[in-house]
Automatic annotation (TrEMBL):
Residues 1-25 form the signal peptide. The keyword Signal applies. Residues 73-82 have a biased composition (Polar residues). This is Small secreted domain. Residues 63-82 are annotated as: Disordered. It comes from the Bacteria. Keywords: Signal.
Amino acid sequence: MSRVSTAGRSVGVLPLIAGLASAIALTGAAFYTVDAAGCGDPGQYVRHDDHVELIGGCVDGASLPHTPEKTGTEASHSNYRP
């Protein structure tokens, strides 16, 4: 008859508990980060003649870096999501 020691079972439980504890901690940190962001207005994308514009939201356009316009590329339905 073979005997299974209880020490063998408890060795496998410790990594499982550590993994669950870290998953719970990371989930809590993610929920706290999203809650602390404090953006109540998600904004909406509006399509104009040749471009798409974000109206509203929590992004301040003045704080974004300016990129020069690329010539020859136009907005189409395949390269943006409303």
